[in-house]
């Protein structure tokens, strides 16, 4: 891990107090200097939309889990492509831990698939300018999603029925479709492959 840290100059990383909790609590002094996606939907230079109109960026967070293979099979059968943001230790409290988590996850993905990844989504969208700065130094681009409207809330299946999750997303699609005349770009949605229930919602 020391050689990973030695690769990075932390001197110009913004000094921002890390938020704590699970999910992390928002700081009371949210500002443009902090630019926190989870708290105030400040995206900085993160990717938050698809460049072309009528393009849907389908993304899944939290895996891989035992539910993931079923989802992969379904997407393959439907000839649908999606982006999966795989979970490491879900710890972003300190830059040193960020580096270790990213590099170990990167190594695991490379060994399992032979592929290098260059896009990342911090857990729960908890990214601020401190985290962005470190991730850029590691060669990553942060990908958020289109905001609360495009978050399926499927991780709350214990609180919401599958039908409620589907209805929420159908409203999102209708809202997007009603705005396409305004030359808006494509959207990125956020779903999960944490549980079989999440996968069932995705298939519906």
TrEMBL record:
Residues 54-204 form the NodB homology domain. It comes from the Eukaryota. It holds the Pfam family Polysacc_deac_1. Keywords: Hydrolase, Metal-binding. PROSITE patterns: NODB. This is Chitin deacetylase. It comes from Linnemannia gamsii. The gene is CDA2_2.
């Amino acid at each position: 891990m020391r050689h990973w840290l030695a690769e990075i100059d932390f001197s110009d990383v913004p000094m921002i107090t890390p938020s704590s909790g699970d999910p992390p609590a928002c700081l009371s002094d949210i500002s443009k200097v902090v630019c926190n996606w989870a708290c105030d939907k400040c995206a900085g230079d993160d990717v938050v939309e698809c460049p072309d109109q009528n393009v849907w960026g389908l993304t899944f967070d939290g895996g891989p889990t035992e539910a993931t293979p079923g989802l992969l099979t379904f997407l393959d059968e439907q000839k649908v492509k999606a982006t999966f943001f795989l979970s490491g230790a879900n710890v972003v409290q300190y830059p040193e831990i960020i580096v270790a988590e990213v590099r170990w996850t990167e190594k695991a993905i490379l060994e399992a698939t032979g592929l290098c990844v260059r896009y990342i989504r911090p857990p729960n969208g908890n990214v601020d300018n401190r985290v962005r700065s470190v991730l850029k130094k590691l060669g990553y681009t942060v990908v958020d999603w289109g905001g609360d409207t495009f978050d399926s809330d499927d991780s709350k299946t214990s609180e919401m029925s599958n039908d409620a999750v589907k209805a929420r997303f159908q409203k999102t699609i209708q809202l997007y479709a009603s705005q396409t005349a305004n030359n808006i770009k494509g959207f990125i949605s956020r779903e999960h492959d944490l549980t079989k229930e999440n996968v069932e919602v995705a298939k519906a």
